[in-house]
Design a protein that fits this description.
The complex is a heterodimer.
Chain A lengths: L1 H57 L1 H34 L5 H13 L2 H12 L4 H8 L8 H25 L3 H9 L4 H29 L3 H6 L6 H12 L1 H14 L1 H10 L10
Chain B lengths: L1 E10 L2 E10 L4 E5 L6 H9 L4 E8 L2 E2 L10 E4 L11 H5 L6 H11 L14 H13 L5 E5 L7 H18 L2 E6 L2 H7 L2 E6 L2 E6 L1 H6 L4 H6 L4 E9 L18 E7 L2 E7 L4 E7 L5 E3 L9 E13 L2 E8 L2 E8 H6 L7 E6 L5 E2 L1
Parallel strand pairs in B: 3-8, 3-9, 6-7, 7-8
Antiparallel strand pairs in B: 1-2, 1-4, 4-5, 9-10, 11-12, 11-14, 12-13, 14-20, 15-19, 16-17, 16-19, 17-18
Amino acid sequence: MTHAGAGEDRTLPRSLAAHRTASIVAGLCGSIFLLFLVAPIARLVAGGGTSGVSALFTDAELRGALWLTAVTATLAMAAGALGGTPLAYLLARRSFRGKAVVAAVLDLPLLIPHPVAGIALLLILGRESAVGRVLLHAGIQVAGSPVGIVCAMVFVSAPLYISAAREAFARVDPRYESVARTLGDPAWRAFRRVTLPLSMRGLIAALVVMWARAVSEFGAIVILTYNPKVASVLTFDRFTGFGLTEALPVAAVLSILALIPLVALRALRPDHGAGMDV
Amino acid sequence: MIEVVGLDAQVGAFRLREVTFTVPRGQYGVVIGPAGSGKTTLLETIAGIVETQAGQVKLDGRDVTGEAPERRRLGIVYQHGYLFPHLSVAENVAYGAADAAFAAEIAERVGARPLYDRPVRALSGGERQVVALARAFAVRPSVLLLDEPFSALDPRSRTRLRRVVRDVHREMGTTVLQVTHDFTEAGLLGDVAVLLDQGRVLQSGPPGGVFREPASAYIAEFLGAENVFAGTVRALGDDPAALGAGPDAARGHRALEFRSGPLTIYTVGDAADGPTHAVIRAEEIVLSRDAAATSARNQFVGSIEEIAVLGALTRVTVDVGGASLVSALTTRSAEELALERGARVCASFKAMAVHLC
C-alpha cells in the first residue's frame, strides 16, 4: 500500500505538469490560428475603415452595389426559405428511399468551386440555354441581371440553410407534434403551432447564415452577372482596374457590414434562461 | 372500447407482432411489460402515430386503422408530459379543448390550476404530468392512452391523481389504456391487464386472474411471484375435497401431487401428468410456530433464512430441506410471531393456492 501510495505521489505531479504543458501548447497554437484569422481583417479595417465609411457618403457606385447586394441576398434568402424549409423538414422527419442521395446532392454546391457553380448556372440559365430562352421569352433575363445574382446566391447558400434548418427541426422531439395531433391538429396545423415556434430560433439563425453567405458570394455571381455589380464584384473590379488603394475602402466597408449577421447570430444563440429545451 | 386484432407495427428494428386484446368501453386497461417490450409503441400505434403494418385497431367499434391521429378522438399522455414549452400552462391545457370552461374545470380537478402562472420550463416532472393529464382530458377523448403518467409523482400525489383519473374516467365514460411498471397500480386501476413482452401479448384478462393464474413460469416470475418451482405432477386417486380444496373449487378437477426437490405439494387441477411449474404467491403462505395450528393441506417445517421488513409487509424466506419458500405477512403478524433468523416455523398453504403452469 505504501509503495503504491508513493507511486501515486510521484505520478500525480508528473501528469499535472504534462496536462499544463499540453494546455500551454494548445493555447499557443489556438492563439496563432486566431491571429491568422483576425489579423488580415483587422489590417483591412484599420487601413480602409475610415475612408470606407466616408466613401459611403461620397461613392454612389458603392452605395448602389451595397443596396443591390442587400436586396438580392434578401430575395435569395426568401427563396431559400420557401423552397428549402419543406425539404429540410422532410429530411429531418421522414425516412424515404434515396434520402441519403438527396442529402448528398444538396451538399454538392458547397463542395464545387464557386466559379464552376457559376458556369453550371450559365449553362442551364444563360441566354443560349433552353430554360434561358424560355425565360427570356417570358421577359425574364437571368444572366447579366439581378435575377442572375439571386440565382447564383441561392445556388451557393441554400444548402447551408437547408442543412441548418434540418438540424433545427431534428432538435424538436417529434412527440410534440404527435401530442398536438392527438389533440386535434392536422399535420400542417401541428407544424405551424408547435414545430415551427419550437424551431424558430434555429431557422432564423439558418436564414442569417444563408444571407451572410449570399452577401459574401463572388465566384458564381461574377460568371453569371458581372453587371450590375454587387459589393464583392465591385471590390474585385476596383482592385483589378484601379489597384489596392481604390479597393481598400470598399473591402473594408464589406468587412464591417459582415459584423451585422455575426451579431445577429450571437443574439439568436439560445442563452441559459430562454433556450428551447427541446 | 379498444379492440386490437392481430396488430403488427415496426419502429426501427423493434416490432409488435400479432397483438390482440380488448378493453371494453369505459373500462380501464393496463399494459404491463419489461422495458423494451413495446408498451409505448403499442400506445403510439393505437394513436395512429406509428403506422400499422397489419391487423386492425377499432375504437368504440369504429375501425380507425390507417386514420390520422386527429381523427381518432383519443388523447395520449407520455411519461415526460411533452408540454409545449413555448406556451403557458393554461395554453397547454386549453390547446385542443373546444370548451374552455371544461378545460379550466378539469385543470382544477387534477390539480393543474395552481400551476397556471408558472412557466412550463419551471415545472417539475410530476407537475408536467399533471398538466399533461389535464390537457388530454380537456378534449373529452373517448379513449385515453397513458404512458406511465404517474411515474414522476411523489407517493401522496400519485395516490391522489390515480383516484382523480379513475373518477374522471368513470364520469366521462372514457376507455383508458395505461402503461405501468407498478403491479400494485395495475391491480388498483385495471379492469383488464395486458402483459406484453418482446412485442407480443403473453397474457391478457382481469388483473386478478393474470396475477393469480399466470400462463407460464416466465410470466409468474415477471409478475413478481416469489415461489416458482419446476417439477413433476401426477394425479392422485384422492377426492379433491380431501385436499382442503372445497367441493365447489374442485369441481371437475383431480387431486394432484407435485414434486420438486424436497417439496411434495398437493394441489387440484386438470394438469396432465408430467413436468410442469408450480406457482404459489407469497401472500398465500402462512407462517406459524405450531404445525397443528393450521388445517392447510401443504405444511412444511423449516428454518427462517431471511427476514425483510418492507414497511407494512414483511417477507420471510424459509429453508425447507434446501428449498426456499417465501411468505409475505403483515409486519405486525411477524412481530407477534417473534420471528428471527434460524427459528423453526411451519409454512403452510392450501391446495387451491397452488397454480400449475
